[in-house]
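dumping this here so i dont lose it
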């Protein structure tokens, strides 16, 4: 393992040898002639004004040392270009999370599935951007941490009859937390990412507040609600005020290699979206085939058997297709009962629910409240926030009661509470 951070013992465990040493830049490199040339030529006129407006530029400029998360995509690349143009000292980091050639994320021929997220190609793309903008760049090897904190819980959640969203835990518990720890050890003032979100300090409340991105369709605050006040104090989101088209314009103006790169939509370690097949391969690869769910009954709300299933990890709440049941009306998965190894189905109206319980609740706007809280609540990423009342419960739990029933509230998904654009808090939906 490359000993790039010999004077920072806490950082050494993260440094990866996944990228050849000849590409490694010195951590002590400072802004040089290439950066000066970039500042004088890449941005001018209206573009500079827009960048300063959208990225929160202040006339009384304070130069900071900023750790930048580099995913290899256009968003993080544009964020880095903005900060570099403003004159900040940058150190770029990419995280090596999953070995695509491990023999798990493969097709029917055993070949690695193509991925547009967290692949080695993304690592090289991120390095190319950092080199072009003129700041040092490093790779953090977090493969073991990623498997422990993200992949294993993902598999176990499906085995428990839930439908997990691993990207939330990955963003807050692994990516941001690891980079934040590294940034602190290196004396960085801020940690910047390409998320479409905003953070502000409220002097009156002595608290950092998290907000949705101005572009609600691209908003990524859903993935950040677990951040602590300490982490938010160093978080910096340069793209929070922007539209996606503006971000691409910035990347094009800076001649960044990633300007036209497609976005990733899939889970990085399951790029084909076939989650149950991944779980089959993963458990077999780990020598744990006995943990795979067996077939069982599909029953209706009256408890009558109406079909059979091939393993509870192949189903999710709200699913209609693939049930193999002939019925006069469409049937949907309503519940997944691991203890009984049953799938419970019903009609569309049966999917509507007025309340649920969340665990692992993190209150962002304020400390845990003693009184009920009114908020707009999301129960999945693309769900339109709906009015609800939130009742704090012991052990970081909460009961959420909607004004109107919501469709297909699914255990394992993240829920987030909003007051307008502000993130009040969030948690994990559990079975009740």
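and the seq i came up w/
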């Amino acid at each position: 393992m490359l000993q790039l951070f010999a004077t920072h013992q806490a950082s050494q465990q993260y440094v990866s040898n996944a990228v050849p040493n000849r590409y490694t830049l010195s951590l002590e490199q400072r802004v040089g002639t290439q950066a000066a040339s970039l500042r004088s030529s890449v941005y001018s006129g209206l573009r500079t004004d827009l960048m300063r407006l959208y990225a929160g530029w202040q006339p009384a400029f304070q130069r900071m040392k900023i750790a930048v998360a580099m995913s290899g995509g256009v968003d993080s690349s544009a964020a880095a270009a903005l900060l570099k143009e403003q004159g900040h000292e940058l150190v770029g980091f990419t995280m090596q999370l999953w070995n695509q050639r491990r023999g798990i994320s493969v097709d029917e021929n055993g070949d690695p599935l193509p991925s547009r997220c967290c692949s080695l190609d993304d690592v090289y793309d991120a390095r190319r951007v950092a080199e072009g903008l003129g700041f040092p760049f490093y790779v953090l090897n977090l493969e073991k941490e990623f498997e422990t904190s993200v992949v294993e819980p993902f598999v176990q959640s499906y085995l428990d009859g839930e439908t997990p969203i691993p990207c939330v835990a990955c963003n807050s518990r692994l990516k941001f937390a690891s980079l934040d720890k590294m940034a602190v050890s290196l004396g960085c003032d801020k940690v910047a990412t390409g998320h479409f979100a905003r953070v502000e300090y409220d002097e009156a409340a002595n608290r950092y507040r998290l907000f949705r991105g101005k572009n609600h369709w691209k908003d990524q605050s859903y993935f950040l609600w677990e951040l602590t006040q300490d982490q938010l104090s160093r978080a910096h989101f340069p793209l929070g005020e922007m539209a996606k088209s503006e971000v691409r314009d910035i990347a094009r103006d800076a001649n960044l290699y990633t300007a036209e790169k497609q976005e990733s939509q899939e889970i990085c370690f399951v790029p084909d979206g076939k989650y149950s097949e991944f779980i089959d391969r993963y458990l077999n690869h780990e020598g744990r085939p006995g943990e795979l769910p067996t077939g069982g009954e599909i029953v209706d709300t009256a408890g009558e058997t109406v079909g059979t299933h091939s393993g509870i990890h192949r189903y999710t709440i709200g699913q209609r297709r693939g049930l193999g049941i002939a019925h006069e009306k469409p049937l949907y998965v309503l519940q997944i009962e691991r203890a009984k190894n049953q799938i419970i189905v019903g009609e569309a109206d049966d999917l509507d629910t007025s309340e649920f319980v969340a665990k692992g609740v993190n209150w962002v706007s304020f400390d845990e409240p003693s009184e009920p809280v009114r908020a707009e609540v999301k129960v999945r990423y693309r769900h339109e926030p709906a009015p609800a009342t939130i009742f704090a419960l012991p052990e970081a739990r909460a009961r959420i009661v909607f004004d109107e029933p919501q469709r297909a509230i699914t255990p394992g998904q993240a829920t987030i509470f909003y007051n307008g654009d502000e993130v009040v808090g969030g948690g994990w939906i559990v079975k009740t």
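The longest helix spans residues 166-185.
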